């Protein structure tokens, strides 16, 4: 951010007439970054989420390949792997498309500022002004696109890296079941172990029932008995 601001400031100091162009470029750049940053962060989170099942399925296939061939489930495992890879590839494609979207707009902004500085340089040369500041302004105008792209991508990556932290926070904030302990019993949940039975909320079901829908056991290799 400091390098980006210093490059814009150098252009303005070298060519004061370029101030309106630099201000317009800065406003458009802020709008583009504000639009791109949250969308790109969510796209990277989507890539991370869809990449996990691919790795998990690969591990299951490596460990349970014998069972898949023995029970003639190789075709189903391959079809499931293809479906997971297609979903992950779609997320990757969307992420790359967002990066190209940002690159195109930053290139247009950099080219616009470079054109304005170039025209001002020609105008200054015809008036007989020194060409040193003009060359410095042109040099910093060329670095605007790279600095802007690096800044936006760096902020986006930093935001996307918090996906794991958000998952851990969500898991740590899950409510615990109340401790059920009788007279002198030891509870195994969250709460005070004072020997009194916990009060069950009235919205809890009075009868327990376990329903399995589309249950598919994962393939694994049983550990050898000692």
From TrEMBL:
Keywords: ATP-binding, Membrane, Nucleotide-binding, Transmembrane, Transmembrane helix. It is a multi-pass membrane protein. The chain crosses the membrane at residues 17-36, 106-125, 131-152. One of its GO terms (cellular component) is membrane. The keyword Chaperone does not apply. It is found in: Membrane. The keyword Nucleotidyltransferase does not apply. GO terms for molecular function: ATP binding; ATPase-coupled transmembrane transporter activity. It comes from the Eukaryota. PANTHER family: ATP-BINDING CASSETTE SUB-FAMILY C, MULTIDRUG RESISTANCE-ASSOCIATED PROTEIN LETHAL(2)03659. Belongs to the ABC transporter superfamily. ABCC family. Conjugate transporter (TC 3.A.1.208) subfamily. This is ABC transmembrane type-1 domain-containing protein. It comes from Chrysotila carterae.
């Amino acid at each position: 951010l400091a390098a980006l601001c210093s490059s814009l400031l150098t252009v303005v100091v070298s060519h004061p007439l370029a101030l309106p162009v630099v201000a317009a470029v800065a406003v458009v750049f802020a709008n583009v970054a504000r639009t791109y940053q949250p969308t790109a962060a969510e796209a990277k989170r989507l890539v991370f989420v869809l990449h996990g099942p691919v790795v998990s399925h690969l591990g299951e296939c490596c460990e349970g390949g014998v069972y898949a061939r023995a029970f003639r489930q190789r075709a189903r495992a391959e079809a499931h792997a293809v479906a997971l890879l297609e979903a992950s590839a779609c997320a990757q494609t969307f992420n790359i498309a967002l990066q190209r979207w940002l690159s195109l707009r930053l290139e247009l902004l950099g080219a616009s500022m470079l054109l304005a500085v170039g025209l001002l340089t020609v105008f200054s040369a015809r008036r007989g002004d020194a060409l040193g500041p003009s060359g410095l302004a042109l040099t910093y105008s060329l670095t605007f696109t790279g600095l802007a792209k690096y800044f936006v991508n760096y902020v986006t990556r930093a935001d996307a890296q918090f996906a794991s932290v958000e998952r851990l926070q969500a898991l740590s904030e899950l409510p615990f079941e109340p401790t059920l302990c009788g007279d002198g019993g030891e509870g195994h949940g969250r709460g005070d172990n004072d020997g009194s039975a916990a009060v069950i909320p009235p919205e809890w079901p009075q009868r327990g029932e376990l329903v399995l829908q589309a249950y598919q056991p994962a393939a694994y290799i049983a550990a050898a008995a000692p």
